[in-house]
Amino acid sequence: MYAYAHSSGYEYAHARRNTYPQSRRRVEVVQSLADLDTPNGRLAFISFSVRHLFRTTYERADELSVGALVNYLNVAMPADKHEDFDVQEVTRAAATLAKSGVLVQEGDRLRPRD
Length: 114
Description:
Layout: E1 2-6, E2 9-13, E3 25-28, H1 39-56, E4 64-65, H2 66-76, H3 87-99, E5 103-106, E6 109-112
Antiparallel strand pairs: 1-2, 1-3, 4-6, 5-6
């Protein structure tokens, strides 16, 4: 699949159906799947998910509970393809992210670092 860059964003089209004017440049879209089979990949997925939720759904003043994050993570994965996230794993990941300065952890509540 290819994306065509222009001033209002990207339009997607199959490469064989290139009917866009020459003024738009073609950019190949590379899709990669999350690595949910390794500890580092799972930590990266949790980190990305927390940042995504605070950019799109939660306000900066809101707090995200570990339980809500566990539910979100498990729903975001294909069923029966990877091991489900549990509260203990997400709590450890949140502590790691808090130590690295990505977020603030207060008990089972998470919020972005100011």
